[in-house]
Design brief:
- With 152 residues, the chain is mainly alpha-helical.
- Helix 3 runs antiparallel to helix 4.
- 26% of the residues are buried.
Length: 152
């Protein structure tokens, strides 16, 4: 009897792909990763760049992309949802509000409204990556189903 390889057997990856991290986060884990990363980015922006919202927004794009790339295929829909939540969660340290709670809240609202372009861009990046990943996954499933039906 001849052994048939399992359809989901791992094929060797090229050397460049072996060095890249391949975490698979749940939807909640992806959101928590994005929020924690944006809080870290906000701290760095506050310390090094004098609370620059431009740098914060610029660094939001790779965080949104990483969250969309590292989420599990079953939880792809959560990537474009967690991106704006992470942006809003991390904007507080760099928002520039003054005074008490009301002043801080107004600073956050102002930062969110004035820098909505970064928010939309990062959300669009996450949504496009999730959409491409979902399409590739669908194509692979269809091809596997076609192979199974042709051999049966």
């Amino acid at each position: 009897m001849r052994s048939v390889p399992h359809p989901q057997a791992r094929r060797p990856r090229p050397p460049a792909a072996r060095r890249l991290p391949r975490p698979r986060l749940t939807g909640l884990g992806g959101g928590l990763f994005a929020c924690a990363a944006m809080l870290l980015v906000a701290g760095v922006c506050w310390l090094l760049f004098d609370s620059s919202l431009f740098v914060y927004g610029l660094l939001f794009l790779p965080v949104a992309a990483a969250a969309a790339l590292w989420v599990r295929p079953a939880d792809l829909i959560t990537a474009p949802v967690s991106a704006p939540i992470a942006f809003a969660a991390g904007v507080w340290p760099v928002s520039g509000g003054s005074g008490g709670f009301g002043g801080q809240l107004m600073g956050v609202v102002s930062a969110l409204s004035l820098h909505a372009g970064w928010l939309y861009a990062g959300t669009l990046v996450a949504a496009l990556i999730a959409l491409v990943r979902r399409a590739a996954l669908s194509g692979r499933r269809r091809a596997a189903a076609a192979r199974r039906s042709s051999t049966a």
